[in-house]
Each structure stands twice: as structure tokens, then as C-alpha cells.
Design goal:
Elements (H helix, E strand, L loop, with lengths): L1 H19 L11 E2 L5 E2 L1 H7 L2 E8 L4 H15 L4 E8 L4 H11 L15 H6 L7 H7 L8 H4 L3 E2 L2 E2 L15 H7 L15 H11 L3
Parallel strand pairs: 3-4
Antiparallel strand pairs: 1-2, 5-6
Helix pairs in contact: 1-3
Length: 211
């Protein structure tokens, strides 16, 4: 569980950071003057401006505390140039809210293509998402932390258009009494055990099947 939590934190922070990298900082209006009459150059002004990004997420009593108190907190503690604003929307309303924000030109930088809209392919075709490939290469992101099969979902034309930041699990429930009666060992509970496959589950089901 500790390993899984660390994985999710890393994924979320990378997703936010990479998407932000495509958003330019507000342009300075020119030179200024600091306290004591010292001149401030445009470059120094730009460096002093804290950029903000909006991360749209769905309402969830379990996900929201993690997003706010773990992912965002860790990210903002690691640097001071970027502030993340969490926008929490009920999932049934995300599609309408997202389209309204896009149409109005309101800032929206990070979201899940699975929540609202027509999905990843549609968002990419509409030009709503950024090719992350050059940003990944520039920052030397370790892509091995991602599950290859999940990462491939967001690949197209040799480019990486998104990064997974959340995984959910499917569970198998079984009657232990049936296993005991048949003298069969219980299925593994080790999620690293590669022997537990669909074929293994099917064979186990055949052994338990009576009549």
C-alpha cells in the first residue's frame, strides 16, 4: 500500500508539472522599481510572478483530501513558482462546466479526459491537450514509474499526450469454505504475484465447479 501511494503521488505531481510547462508566465509590462529605488528588470519581474494553474477534479470524499493535502501540498513545498488551484466539480456536471470554461476562455490546465466530454481522442482532435513529449525529454522524466499498458492509452502518432495520475482496482470475492471443502489453496493476495492471471482464475474456477 505504501508503494502504491507513493506511485500515485509521483504520477499526479508529474502530470500537473508537465501540463503547466506549456503555459507561459504572464508577460511583464516593463522595468520597475524595487524598495530603496533599485531598478527591477523585466526578467526579474517575471521571475517574481507566481504562476497559477487550475486542476479540475471530481467530487470525492476520498480523492479530494489526497489531492489537496498530499499531492498539491508536496508539489508546492517542492517549489515556489507555481500555485495549484483545485476546482472540485460533481462528476455529472463536469462535462458542462468544462465546455463552458473552454468556450469562455477561462483558465483550465489539468483534468482527466475520462471525466466529462467525449474522452481522450476527442480532446486531442480538438486541440485541447498538449503534446508532453518534448517536456518529458527536457525534464528527463522517468517514465518507468508508469504502468506501460496504461501509459500507452495516451500515446498517439509517437507522442505522449497525457499521463495517468489515478488508478482504481477491481476486486475478486470468493467463498473460503468452498476452497476448504475442495482442499484448494486460496488465491494469492500478493499483487506482485504474476502467476495470478485470467487463465489461472479460470482453471481455479473449473476445479471448484461441481455438477
Amino acid at each position: 500500500m505504501v508503494r502504491q501511494n507513493r506511485f500515485l503521488i509521483v504520477v499526479a505531481l508529474l502530470a500537473a508539472l508537465l501540463l503547466l510547462a506549456a503555459c507561459p508566465a504572464p508577460a511583464p509590462s516593463g522595468g520597475g522599481e524595487a524598495a530603496g529605488g533599485q531598478a527591477v528588470t523585466g526578467g526579474e519581474q517575471a521571475a517574481a510572478v507566481q504562476r497559477e494553474i487550475v486542476w479540475m477534479v471530481r467530487t470525492s470524499t476520498t480523492e479530494n483530501p489526497w489531492e489537496k493535502d498530499v499531492a498539491i501540498k508536496a508539489f508546492e513545498e517542492s517549489q515556489s513558482e507555481i500555485k495549484v488551484n483545485l476546482l472540485i466539480i460533481d462528476q455529472p456536471d463536469i462535462a458542462v462546466k468544462r465546455e463552458a470554461m473552454i468556450a469562455a476562455g477561462e483558465p483550465l490546465h489539468v483534468w482527466s479526459t475520462n471525466w466529462g466530454g467525449d474522452g481522450f481522442a476527442s480532446d486531442r482532435a480538438r486541440g485541447l491537450i498538449t503534446d508532453l513529449t518534448p517536456l518529458i525529454e527536457k525534464d528527463g522524466v522517468d517514465m518507468s514509474v508508469f504502468i506501460p499498458e496504461v501509459l500507452a492509452i495516451y500515446e498517439n502518432e509517437g507522442k505522449q499526450w497525457g499521463l495517468p495520475f489515478l488508478t482504481t482496482g477491481s476486486y475478486v470475492f470468493y467463498n473460503m469454505d468452498l476452497f476448504d471443502a475442495a482442499g484448494i489453496e486460496y488465491p494469492t493476495t500478493d499483487w506482485e504475484d504474476k502467476s495470478w492471471t485470467w487463465d489461472a482464475q479460470l482453471e481455479l474456477a473449473k476445479k471448484l465447479t461441481q455438477n
